[in-house]
Amino acid sequence: MDYLARQILVYLLLAALWGFFIGWLIFKVNYKVKLHKIENIWKINVLSLEQQLEELRSSKTGRGGAGKTLSPKAVTKQK
């Protein structure tokens, strides 16, 4: 009877390890997909903000402020 209990315990442990491994793989794949989507959103946001900053810099220098640069703090204050 002791042999049967050990066999059940060993196979339950193996099943738990197998389940953990499969769950970890699924989580890893889903995490990469979500991370890729979030990175793309951030890249779009950064490019948009850089474009707005460049437009503000060019409009600032176009109005007679030649040589003046616009700092990021000034950009946020103008909004």
Brief descriptors of the model:
single chain, 79 residues, mainly alpha, rod-shaped
Report a brief summary of the structure.
The protein is mainly α and 79 residues long. The chain has helices at 2-62, 72-78.
Q: What is the rounded distance between the termini?
A: 77 Å
Put simply, the count of helices is 2
Beta fraction of the residues?
Answer: under 5%
Number of strands: 0
Query: What are the secondary-structure elements, in order, as H or E?
Result: HH
Domain module tally: 1
Average residue pLDDT: 85
Helix proportion: over 70%
The unreliable regions are none
Shape summary: rod-shaped
Estimated structural class: mainly alpha
Most strands sheet: none
Radius of gyration: 29 Å
